[in-house]
Amino acid sequence: MKTLWTSQDAAAATGGQTTRDWVVGGVSIDTRELEQGDLFVALKDVRDGHDFVAQALKTGAAAALVTHRPENVPEDAPLLIVPDVLQALEDLGQAARARTAAKVIGVTGSVGKTGTKEMLRSALAPQGRVHAAVRSFNNHWGVPLTLARMPQDTDFAVIEIGMNHPGEIGPLSRMAQLDVAVITTVAAVHMAAFDSVEQIAQAKAEIFEGLGASGVAVLNGDIPTLPILLNAAKGARVRLFGESDQADLRLVAARTTETVTTVEALLDGQEILFKLGAPGHHLAMNALAVLGAVQAVGADPAQSMLALAQWHAPSGRGQRFTVTRSDTGGVMELIDESYNANPTSVAAALSVLADSQPEGGRRIAMLGDMLELGPQEQQLHSDLADHPAVARIDTVHTSGPLMAALHETLPDHKRGQHFATADLMAARVNRLLDSGDVAMVKGSLGSKVGQVVTAIKALGQTTEK
Q1: Distance (Å, whole) CA 83 – CA 92
Q2: Most buried residue among 53, 86, 129, 459 by CB atoms closer than 10 A?
Q3: In which residue ranges of the chain is pLDDT below 50?
């Protein structure tokens, strides 16, 4: 086990008291994902992590970060005792950032944060030791946890930073002390907490609060709120990506097949051509943001372009599967976009589905509610019927009270079945899909359309494409 924290270093970082000497090789907040030798952090969330300290130590944790010794834990247990566990986790994160010479890239945006983070992981991997969160750890505990897990010998770190409300990004960005700040896009997401897209842009621009004096801002040059971002990024070196003439990394063309996007672009006026291991115009845009960040940290874009050909969409964000049905032997394709949804990401997913090539079947969208959209939520759902990609989609099935607005707006020949909940849709997938179909499942996490994905996979043998 490689040492990540000693008890002495962790105590110095947090101001806590250790019960005895220990070393840990990782940091965990969940006993279900705990690895041998981890420091278990007893956060309070839905459950109090202190209730799981004994279990964590029994199953392999080398120590636990706590405010007190739980009653069912031995007196000689390896503990780091602090006044506030979350604050101590933040302290560990800041100490980990301070002791490394890594170039740190922060990624935020209304859409594409996790995919861009994973692209950066792939793009930089051939050129150094890369540290990034394993999933979408982008909130008030996810960012310090990602930082606290960062080895001292990291060369490049990629920190995803998200938000639901104003004022959330700034503190996380300052904690990460960024060398590069990437904003993928600004769109009508989390509108329940904002009055306008301009306010969302201002909140996303908080990422510049943690950008160093010589930092680089990599921004989407095509969005209407770009002036807000540019004003907030004053003092930083700005790199623009997009399709407009002003872009430093300008997309010329993105050609998709079922599994690949071929990207033709101009990088500071020089023609470049590379492939992504997943289809989507929106992914080509994210890849240009990635190359901008690669340049900004002094890495080689040519090596990164080669590496991006091996990149694949993260779980629930465009993964593609072949499903061979047990009942008929027929083969279908599943596009899993079930992790989250908003008008921008649903539009992108519909475009990917429209570009798919069914083997004698249909293009079928299976959509759940988009949540946190505020007063315009009904209209934003019904507006999806006007997206150009819908013209090339055969059937749209919907679930949830908000998607009922889209169901009613769709033309008769496109309108599939509507279900009150995603679990009811999941129970009917065997009748909604046939051999040769391509089905795309999309919805906000809270709409639970992941159940539909699970039900489709359960129809037979499933292999990732």
Answers
A1: 14
A2: 53
A3: none
**Which pLDDT score, from 0 to 100, does residue 267 have?**
97
End-of-domain residue from the set 282, 308, 334:
308
The rounded distance, in Å, linking the Cα atoms of 289 and 283 is 10
- In this prediction, residue 295 carries a pLDDT of 98
The first and second tokens of residue 454, run together, are: 């699970």
Q: Where are the beta strands (DSSP E) in 161-246?
A: 178-183, 211-220, 237-242
HSE-CB at 331 with a 13 A cutoff on CA atoms is 7
Q: Are residues 363 and 289 in the same domain?
A: no
> How high is the pLDDT of residue 197?
94
The verdict on 161 and 292 lying in the same domain is: yes
CA 88 to chain CA mean position, Å: 25
Predicted pLDDT at 317 = 85
Asked if 238 and 362 sit in the same domain, the reply is no
Range of the domain at 352: 319-464
Radius of gyration of the chain (CA): 23
Q: Are 406 and 443 in contact (CB under 8 A)?
A: no
Strand duo 363-367 + 395-399: pairing: parallel
Residue 269 sits in the same domain as residue 364: no
Cα 456 vs. chain centroid, distance in angstroms? 23
Rounded-to-integer distance, Cα 337 and Cα 356, Å: 14
- Enter the tokens of residue 158: 């990629």
pLDDT of res. 124: 98
Taking a C-beta distance cutoff of 8 angstroms, is the pair 127, 303 a contact? yes
With a CB cutoff of 8 Å and minimum separation 6, the contacts of 278 are 259, 260, 261, 311, 312, 313, 318, 320
- Split into its structural domains, the chain has a count of 3
431 burial via Cβ count (<10 Å: 0-12, 13-18, 19+): exposed
First-last CA distance in the chain = 34
pLDDT for 110: 93
Report the alpha-carbon distance of residue 336 to residue 110 in Å, rounded: 19
Per-residue pLDDT at 48: 93
120/55 same-domain check: no
DSSP letters spanning 358-389: -SSS-EEEEE-PPPS-GGGHHHHHHGGGG-GG
Half-sphere exposure of 332 (CA within 13 A, CB side): 28
- Cα 411 from chain centre: 33
Query: pTM of the entire structure?
Result: 0.88
pLDDT value for 416? 98
Helix/strand/coil percent split, the chain, to 5: 35, 25, 40
> Is the CB of residue 244 less than 8 Å from the CB of residue 220?
no
Residues 79 and 110 in one domain: no
Q: Are residues 287 and 366 in the same domain?
A: no
